[in-house]
């Protein structure tokens, strides 16, 4: 479940010109990707590739339907986007989380004991019954990265515009454009990170909640994008205390 952000009308000629220029840039990037990948992209995310490994990614199903991706951050804990449950009506009694498989609908089935929604930003922590298999393979971090670095985002989102979710886990690589800024679609404060198309795919419908990975560690939660040229996420660092207070998982840094 990947939300497409819409720009509000803002008066002023200068702003209008900037928005037109931004649209032209997005279209140019789209057609560049279109002719590079072919008219019908062979892979999802959109223009991504099959993921070679599971690095904590899980599939979130509500009422038997795939809705979002999440990331294992502890023995019984999954980090994802809050709107994955708010928009689908997901709760403890109708949500199933599959872990340990790159194939959609496969893997070990895990059931939520509790879903914790952050009050101010688009984040949710899911505590499941029992232990998630091989949870030790991923340790989350709270560094937000910096402009110019490349991040990997994996999910089971749409394989092309208007299509259904991917059958196999896909991965795209995008370039961080800016971080530590305010985006109302992400939440309060300067909590957002923005990444742009860099020739190796973009996020799509169904990739919400996926971990934004750098050096194989989570630095963000994917929230939304346009499916063409950019995406935005929530920096995990701004919710480090919230994660620790609920789950007991300590804040960890890499470097």
What is the CATH-assigned architecture of the largest domain?
A: Beta Barrel
What does the radius of gyration come to?
Answer: 17 Å
Main sheet specs: 7 strands, antiparallel
How much of the polypeptide forms β-strand, as a percent range? 25-35%
Q: Please provide the ordered H/E string of secondary-structure elements.
A: HEEEEHEEEEEEEEEEH
Number of strand segments: 14
Supply the CATH class of the largest domain. Mainly Beta
Instruction: Give the overall shape.
Output: globular
Averaged pLDDT = 78
- CATH T-level fold name of the largest domain: Thrombin, subunit H
User: Major sheet: order of its strands?
Assistant: 6-5-2-3-4-8-7
Uncertain parts: 2-45
**Percent range of helical residues:** 10-25%
* Number of self-contained structural domains: 2
């Amino acid at each position: 479940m990947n939300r497409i952000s819409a720009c509000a009308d803002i008066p002023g000629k200068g702003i209008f010109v900037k928005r037109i220029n931004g649209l032209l840039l997005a279209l140019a990037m789209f057609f560049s990707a279109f002719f590079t990948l072919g008219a019908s992209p062979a892979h999802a995310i959109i223009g991504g590739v099959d993921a070679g490994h599971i690095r904590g990614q899980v599939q979130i199903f509500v009422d038997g339907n795939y809705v979002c991706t999440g990331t294992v951050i502890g023995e019984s804990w999954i980090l994802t986007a809050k709107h994955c449950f708010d928009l689908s009506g997901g709760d403890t009694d109708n949500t199933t989380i599959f872990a340990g498989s790159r194939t959609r609908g496969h893997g070990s089935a895990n059931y939520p004991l509790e879903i914790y929604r952050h009050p101010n930003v688009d984040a949710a922590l899911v505590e499941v019954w029992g232990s998630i298999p091989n949870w030790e393979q991923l340790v989350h971090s709270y560094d937000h990265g910096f402009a110019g670095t490349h991040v990997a985002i994996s999910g089971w989102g749409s394989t092309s515009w208007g299509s259904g979710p991917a059958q196999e886990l896909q991965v795209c690589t995008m370039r961080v454009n800016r971080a530590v800024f305010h985006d109302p679609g992400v939440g309060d404060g300067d909590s957002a990170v923005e990444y742009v198309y860099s020739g190796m795919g973009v996020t799509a419908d169904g990739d919400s909640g996926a971990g934004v990975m750098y050096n194989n560690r989570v630095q963000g939660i994917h929230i939304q994008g346009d499916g063409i040229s950019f995406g935005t996420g929530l920096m995990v660092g701004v919710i480090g205390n919230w994660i620790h207070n609920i789950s007991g998982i300590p804040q960890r840094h890499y470097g």
